[in-house]
Design a protein that fits this description.
Blueprint lengths: L18 H9 L8 E5 L3 H7 L6 H20 L4 E8 L7 H17 L1 H6 L3 E5 L7 H14 L6 E8 L1 H17 L10 H5 L12 E4 L18 E4 L9 H12 L12
Parallel strand pairs: 1-2, 1-5, 2-4, 3-4, 5-6
Helix pairs in contact: 1-9, 2-3, 3-4, 4-6
Amino acid sequence: MSVGNQRRLEPVLRQPATAEEAELFAALDLGRLPRHVAIIMDGNGRWAKRRGYAARIFGHRAGTEAVRAATRTAAELRLSGLTLYAFSKENWSRPAREVNALMDLLDEYLVKEVPELMENDVRLVASGNLGDLREKTRRILDSTMEKTAGNGGLVLNLALSYGARAEIARAVRRAMEMARSGELSPEELTPEVFGQMLDHPELGDPDLLVRTSGEMRVSNFLLWQIAYSEFVVMDVLWPDFRRPDFFRALLDYQRRDRRFGGVGPE
């Protein structure tokens, strides 16, 4: 199912938790929401350290609440796609104990969140070199994707063992294989055709890229797809990210004049 045909219903806000939440929602132009939002979820380690935890995994565990909040908010707003940078190729170089704890946490999330995903009509997909995942995690991931495959609302894309350069290299190999088999000539390889060889091209390019924790870098994330994305960098650490923060990012996005390289108004 293409995400391009998904926005059928009007955005709805479940009972706002605070007056601020309701005020931020009221300020949104619901006719100008991004279709696809990507988030670099940063700050778990600093969150844990500031609270006196010796291990970063406490921040990662707290961050799952932020994942739930972001997914639910995106679903309520009837966004088409939400891509979360969950585990990078570079993360494999972290201490084995931390990596194993992260995989255990991912397994737990994928099992426990099925009712939430089903309730919110969310379809789970994944990007990255999924063959790097341990067999148990890959099996659980496949099961959750299969269970949610019939959902027609938000597409939640988890970037796992993901690196944009590796994704582009995979796409180049696909193009070379197609050229070798005669399915594709060099003249036919346009940016549009190449884009279809990337992971989950049906999501379309993100309209908005959000990075938490205040860091000003893209960290090898969606390098091809964010060519014209609007960037919003927020000081909030990822475990503290909640619905009001999502609304603030969207309001910042709506203040932008998106020109896509063209000439804007005088």
